[in-house]
Design brief:
Blueprint lengths: L2 H12 L8 H8 L10 E8 L11 E5 L10 E4 L2 H10 L3 E3 L1 H8 L7 E4 L4 H4 L3 H4 L17 H10 L1 E5 L5 E8 L4 H17 L10 E8 L5 E3 L1 H6 L2
Parallel strand pairs: 3-4, 3-5
Antiparallel strand pairs: 1-7, 1-8, 2-6, 8-9
Length: 233
């Protein structure tokens, strides 16, 4: 067994699988369980009491994490004229119009997030089959189809993340890096939790947040007591 395997085994042994931890306990424990030499990503998984097959129970939204995600985000903007300049000035990595549509259709995908001005959506819609399955299609509901291009670029660069319930009624979202430490990770988690609570559909019945688990890339899952959080709201 290599060093990483040994660290993984030790980490697993320190987590009580049957226990529901408080937020502070969970993040303190997580940051004590270093299983890899690289700076691991930290993710949250929430199981929700909704039926994603029903359109009125779809949970999605965005949240600006106070400490960002620790990842550099490559932002592409579909815009023309003044809005093209605005995007470049705000720090967009790639800006263009029809030329970018052709590039992407030919297989170029060197970006993480895409933003578009409303007037560009007619041509951007041609990319639905390419960008849609990757979760990269600009969408007004999450602020990526907008005339306020500068704000959208800055938010995506600064740590705004999207969340969306999947077919299994789960929300998965990155909230930072191992090196952030327990406090910053807990604060990022708090912002995400608030956003998911606000996104609760009116038609959702019973327990909304059924389970919460946090984990680093190589580490074991640590369960957070969802009941104590929802009761505090």
């Amino acid at each position: 067994m290599g060093n990483t395997g040994k660290r993984l085994k030790e980490s697993n042994a320190k987590v009580n699988r049957a226990k529901l931890y408080s937020v502070d306990e969970a993040f303190k424990l997580l940051t004590e369980l270093r299983a890899a030499k690289f700076d691991e990503s930290v993710d949250v998984a929430m199981r929700l009491g909704v039926d994603p097959r029903k359109s009125d129970q779809m949970v999605r939204g965005t949240v600006s994490l106070p400490h960002g995600t620790g990842k550099s985000v490559r932002v592409l903007v579909f815009a023309k004229g003044e809005k093209e300049k605005e995007a470049k000035d705000a720090g967009a990595d790639t800006v263009g119009a029809e030329d970018l549509i052709k590039q992407i259709q030919d297989g170029w995908l060197e970006f993480d997030k895409a933003i578009a001005t409303p007037d560009m959506m007619g041509v951007v819609s041609r990319l639905g089959k390419i960008l849609g399955p990757r979760g990269m299609m600009p969408n007004p509901k999450v602020g990526t189809v907008t005339m306020d291009i500068a704000k959208a670029v800055r938010e995506l660069k600064g740590g705004r993340v999207e969340f969306r319930v999947d077919k299994g009624a789960n929300v998965h979202c990155p909230i930072g890096k191992f090196s952030f430490g327990a406090q910053k990770l807990a604060e990022n988690f708090g912002s995400l939790f608030e956003a998911v609570m606000k996104a609760k559909p009116d038609t959702a019945k019973g327990t909304y947040i059924k389970a919460i688990t946090i984990s680093s890339t190589m580490g074991p899952g640590i369960k957070i007591d969802a009941n104590s959080l929802t009761q505090a709201k």
